[in-house]
Design goal:
The chain is mostly helical and 117 residues long. It has 7 helices and no strands. It is 70% helix and 0% strand.
């Protein structure tokens, strides 16, 4: 992996961590931020991303944030739909689908599944 690609991957991945809550976050938006082509961003993820695409990295950050929020939502700080929107998902039903696929339970049941109070 070229050092430039590895460095750019780290920068773009940090951008994803900082912007996952933006429902409009996309490869095009990241590319524009760094003044790159979308093709180059995809190339960087293909070469330095260890098999993880930009879209998968963005979804991973969103789902990890959702897990954190759902733990606190168990204490009454928000609904599943609110968690979905706060994590950048524009459709709570889609959020439920991808969450269930990744973690094996619906988002509303996650706090009970992990034994949260």
């Amino acid at each position: 992996v070229p050092p430039r690609d590895r460095a750019m991957h780290a920068l773009i991945h940090q951008w994803i961590r900082d912007n996952y809550a933006d429902a409009e976050a996309s490869v095009a938006k990241a590319a524009a931020h760094f003044n790159l082509s979308t093709r180059y961003v995809h190339k960087v993820f293909a070469s330095a991303g260890d098999g993880v695409t930009f879209r998968e990295a963005l979804q991973h950050e969103r789902l990890e944030a959702a897990k954190r929020l759902l733990r606190t939502a168990a204490a009454g700080t928000g609904s599943v739909a609110q968690v979905a929107y706060r994590c950048g998902f524009s459709d709570p039903a889609y959020f439920g689908l991808v969450f269930r696929k990744k973690y094996g339970c619906p988002p509303g049941a996650y706090p009970r599944a992990i034994g949260a109070p």
